[in-house]
Design goal:
about 0% helix, single chain
Length: about 60
């Protein structure tokens, strides 16, 4: 099995979850919730003034 690096530059990425075709994670020290797709494109989904830790979705799909 071969592994590839999708993303570099995380400060303290945690709580990775696969959802809707993307890898979602929180970054404690960059204060945000992010996604990364299979091409390595990172997207900030939500800036958080505090330090986010972990992720989850409600049954209705809300983060």
């Amino acid at each position: 099995m071969k592994s590839d690096v999708l993303l570099r530059g995380l400060a303290f990425g945690e709580g990775p979850r696969w959802h809707d075709g993307k890898l979602w994670f929180s970054d404690f020290y960059r204060h945000g919730i992010y996604t990364v797709d299979s091409s390595g494109k990172e997207e900030l989904i939500l800036g958080v003034p505090t330090q986010p830790s972990g992720l989850g979705w409600l049954p209705n799909g809300d983060l």
